[in-house]
Structure of ATP-grasp domain-containing protein:
Amino acid sequence: MVDPVSSGALYAPLLADAGIPVILLDTERARIGGLRTEATPGALSFEGDFDGSADRVLAYCRDNAVGYVVAGSESGIGLCEYLREHLPGCPANSPGDSRPRWDKEFMFSALSASGVPSLETVAIPVAESLNTDDAARFVADAPVVVKPSMGAGSVDVRMVSTSAELVDAVRSITTAPGFFGDRPNALVQELYPHPQTEYVVDTFSHDGVHEVLGVSCYDKRVSANGDFVYERIKWLAPDEAPAGIICDYATAVLDALGVRVGAGHMEVMYNPDVGPRMIDFGARAHGAGQPLKTFKLTGTSHIHRECEYIAHLLAEQPLSASGGSYSLPQWGAVIFFNLDEPTQCRDRPVEEELMALPGVLDVTINATQGAEYPATRSLLDALSLGLAFISADNKRELDERCLRVRAEFDAVFRGKQRHPA
C-alpha cells in the first residue's frame, strides 16, 4: 500500500514490473497540501472509503494480505507508521512513539536525547505567541530560524533578525492552519553558523541497515524577507568531500529517530569548523521526482532500491548485495526557476526549446502565460514555475550550462526575448 502523491507516484510502475500488486490510498491531507488536486485514478480514499479511520485501513490491509506499506509523501507518514507497526509481518520502525519521524519538535528532541549533535530548538505551542521581551532574547546574539513543527517544501520557514520579525513569524504559524490543514507548533531554532552549505542524503533502510543511495548539495540564498530560496541541487560523488562525513552523521540520525525500514530524505548543514547538523528529515522518498533523476545519473535511487527490497520480501526475488550504494559517472544538477519580485508570465517558456540546449536532460514548465506569480518564498513556489535537469562532463561545464538555461527561461518568461538560443 502506498499514498500515490509526490514521489509516491513512482512506486506502482516499478512494483508492477516485479509482479507486485499495489493498493493506492489517497488522503485529504495530501489534497490540502497541494500534493494532488483531484482523486488519483484507481485509488481508495482514506476519508471516503474508511471514514478517516486508521483501524479500518488496518483491517482492510489484513483482509487483503498487505505485506508492506510505503510512505510516498510527507502527508502519509503518520498513517504509514501506524499501519507498519500494527500489521502482522510488515517491516516496521522502532515501536512506540513515531512522532520523531514526522513531527520536527519530537525529531530534534530525539537527537538531543541520543547525544547526536543538533541545533538548539525551542517549541512555541499552538495559539501561543511571543512577547517582545522574550523575542528579543532569542535574537540577541544572532538571527534564528522559525519553522512549523509539521510541513513540507520549506513553506513558512524563515530567518529572522529582529524581535518584531520573530513575533510575526511565530504568530503566522501558531494562529493559522498548517500546510496539511493541521495545527503545528512553531519552532525557534538556532541558525547554523556561516559558512553554510546544505546537503541532502537519500537513504534506504531495511532490517536496521542504512544504505546511502545519493548525496547532493543545495545552492540557496536568503531573500529580502528572510525566506530561503532554493536555486539548484547538484549531486556529489560518494568519495567527494564531505560526503563521507555527512553519511556517517546521517546514519547516527536514523538510529536516533528509530528508523529501521523505508526510504528517507535528510537535509544536513555542514562546515568543517562546526560539523554536520540536521535541519530536516522526511521518513519518505525525496520529492519532486528527484529519484528518477538520481537513477538517470547513477543507475539507482532509494525508490528503486526499496522496490527491489519489496520484491525480495514479497516475491522472493534476489536482493543485490551491491545495490545499496551508488557511483556518479557524470555530473548533474537540477535548477529551480525563481523570481525576486512579483512578476507576470509574459510568455511561457517551451520545454522542447530549452531541452535543445547542451546537456539539458529534462525540463518541466509549470508556469502559465498571463498568470501573475509572487516573489519566490519557498521550494514549492519555485516548483510552481518549473525546473530543469542538466548534466555535464565536469563541474565548470555544469555551472555554465545551468546559468544559460536559467537566463533563457528568465528572458522568455519576462517577454524580453523569444528563446534567444
Notes: Residues 395-413 form the longest helix (19 residues). The CA atoms of residues 341 and 375 lie 4 Å apart.
